[in-house]
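Hi team,

As requested, here is the filled-out complex form for the DP6 run. I kept the field names the same as last time so the parser does not choke. Let me know if anything looks off before we queue the next batch.

— J.
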Amino acid sequence: MKSTRAVAHSNIALVKYWGKREAVPGQPDDLNLPAVGSLSFTLDRLRSDTLVAPDPRDSFILNGEHHADAPKIFRHLDRIWRATGRAAPRPTTRVSSTNFLPTAAGLASSASGFAALTLAAAAAYGLDLPNKDLSVLARRGSGSAARSLWGGFVRQHRGGDGGDGCYAEPLFPQDHWDLRLLIVHTARGPKSISSTEGMQRCRATSPYYQPWLDTSEADLAAAEAAIAARDLSALGAVMERSCFKMHACMLASAPPILYWNGRTLDVIRAVWAAREAGLPGFVTSDAGPHVKVLTLADHAEPLAAQLRDVPGVFEVDVVAAGPDAHVEILA
Ligand code: DP6
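And here is what came back:
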């Protein structure tokens, strides 16, 4: 095997992935098939930088710290080795990853992390596949990771029930449209419920889960058309709807899932008030209390300044569209 390095950028879903399909009998139980398609915006600056190299034993180093026990990482290496078609055991491997993400926790590193790991490990093991097929492998590590293989705007397809057609592909490149995403930090510390667990509870108990599934493809089509036309109001409307439908689905679960805090709501109201006053921004939020606001480049700094003044906001990062992931062979 070779030593490799990959860099993949984080992404935020504008139309959300929330929910997993049940495992298909006769197929591996780790396909991680999303119940809906999704559409994302890749982020500049926020990224994972991952080195993969042969080593006498498996090891995982994250931000300089050794983690003896990292089952998700080593299972992912097994998966990639199996895809090469070569006999077990796979070579023992060192994975060393650095996340360049905002210091306040709550922004998932799994998207950029599993995308970079997939690219680096595939190159290290000599697995030469088109990115579309690598996106399928990345998805099995984490659903949102499939979208982090490309810059700009990326779509993850739901595909058929058996998993056919369930891959990600780039829609529009990084320079298609000069947008900014403001990341408004409303808390510190890790999230309370993992997204995997939250998705399971929604599927099992939320009366809104089926309507959530039924309305997703229309949102994806509307968002794609709005991005093609560079129409922020149209994109913002569908993006907010997708976000609030997802959270409504969670709120109606038993017991309820509530990722927001009071400041989350204060920030959402502040964005809406700014919009009323002529400074357009549109909100979304994920499995955590932070608010992400999509706006045009020219409006980003004035809007960020207003949001920094909302009591309890820790910081506001202003992030542009990010580039494609890339990989290099080191030795
Ligand atoms: C709310 O990709 O973290 O951010 O497939 O279980 O690893 P797993 O889930 P993950 O879920 C992301 C959920 C979300 C919406 C999104 O990114 O589309």
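Two things worth flagging: The chain has two domains: 4-176, 179-319. The longest helix spans residues 232-251.

Thanks,
J.
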